[in-house]
UniProtKB/TrEMBL annotation:
Binding site for ATP: P89, L90, G91, S92, G93, M94, G95, S96, S97, A98, A99
Keywords: Amino-acid biosynthesis, ATP-binding, Cytoplasm, Kinase, Nucleotide-binding, Threonine biosynthesis, Transferase
GO terms for cellular component: cytoplasm
Designated name of the protein: Homoserine kinase
SUPFAM superfamilies according to UniProt: GHMP Kinase, C-terminal domain, Ribosomal protein S5 domain 2-like
Pathway: Amino-acid biosynthesis; L-threonine biosynthesis; L-threonine from L-aspartate: step 4/5
Organism: Echinicola pacifica
Stretches assigned to the GHMP kinase N-terminal domain: 64-148
Length: 299
């Protein structure tokens, strides 16, 4: 008996919401098949699409870390075998490790007769994020699991809520062909934030959330600013400033780093603007001479 589940890519942070905001990009993601086995324990038996780079060890692979914690929690003592089919590039900032653990959890939960509600799978996926990058952040795993825009109001205790998504919101993801490891991208962050920056950032988070609920594209656009992580991280991302510049006059709502990068996201109020952003970015990277993949998706 086996079950296969798909979990989508995600854009974490969404500029102002460092570690507390994220949205799902439904078109792309990872697939995981979980099967019952007669041998007790959780094992990764197959990984495809990773170029042979992801670990099979139960305590290192995000799928098995998540499933081991889940199995312990529900008291399942049988065997589970995991087959992972990567659709997402590693180290891209599109929530690749999160999509794997979320798909594994969803598949295992269905396989074992839905002992938990979907939202209650979150802590196990967060544990896997801790193993993947050293920080148990939820801004990739929560939207990958729940879909749409998700806010993590608090980590202790965990308090997660879905936000309204206005119709017509589109996202362009610009993925340059190089990897940025989340742990490295976190290590460049300042550990102190000034009062001035805290005020700017809180205004923007509140503005973004209000803008989503009011479907106020202008307010969303004004709120897509990050004075905490982006200044330290953007220097690690070739083409970031050029992309910002290139989409300034085409009607996009804003530009930011997707998760910890190097993917850049551009939020647009309509599909044609998202495609215009794609064209503008293709020109930017042609000029820089760096290979990119550019995806357009509804949010
Ligand atoms: N919020 C996390 C970070 C997301 O920016 O480090 C990692 O993808």
């Amino acid at each position: 008996k086996n079950v296969t589940a798909f979990a989508p890519a995600t854009v974490a942070n969404v500029s102002c919401g460092f570690d507390i905001l994220g949205f799902a990009v439904e078109e792309m993601g990872d697939k995981v098949t979980v099967s019952l086995s007669d041998t007790p324990g959780v094992r990764v038996v197959r990984i495809e699409g990773d170029g042979g780079r992801l670990p099979y060890e139960t305590d290192k692979n995000t799928c098995s870390v998540a499933l081991k914690a889940f199995a312990e929690h529900i008291g399942f003592e049988g065997g589970l075998e995991i087959e992972l089919f990567k659709g997402l590039p590693l180290g891209s900032g599109m929530g690749s490790s999160a999509a794997s653990s979320v798909a594994a959890l969803e598949a295992a939960n269905v396989l074992l007769g839905n002992p938990l509600e979907k939202k209650d799978l979150l802590p196990f996926a967060m544990k896997a994020e801790g193993v993947a990058c050293g920080a148990e952040h939820a801004d990739n795993v929560a939207p990958s699991l729940l879909g749409g825009f998700v806010l993590i109001r608090s980590y202790h205790p965990l308090d997660v809520t879905k936000l309204h998504v206005p119709k017509g919101l589109y996202c362009t993801l610009v993925h340059p062909h190089f990897e940025l490891n989340t742990a490295d991208s976190r290590s460049v962050l300042r550990q102190q934030v000034s009062l001035k920056d805290a005020i700017i950032q809180s205004g923007n988070i509140a503005g973004l959330v209000a803008g989503l609920f009011q479907e106020d594209m202008g307010l969303i656009s004004r709120s897509l600013q990050d004075v905490i992580a982006e200044p330290s991280r953007s220097v690690l991302i070739p083409g970031f400033d050029e992309v910002k510049n290139a989409v300034k006059d085409i009607g996009a709502l804003g530009v930011g780093i997707s998760g910890s990068g190097p993917t850049t996201f551009i939020l647009s109020p309509a599909q044609d603007v998202a495609y215009a952003a794609k064209e503008a970015c293709l020109k930017v990277f042609e000029k820089i001479g760096l290979d990119v993949d550019i995806y357009v998706s509804a949010v």
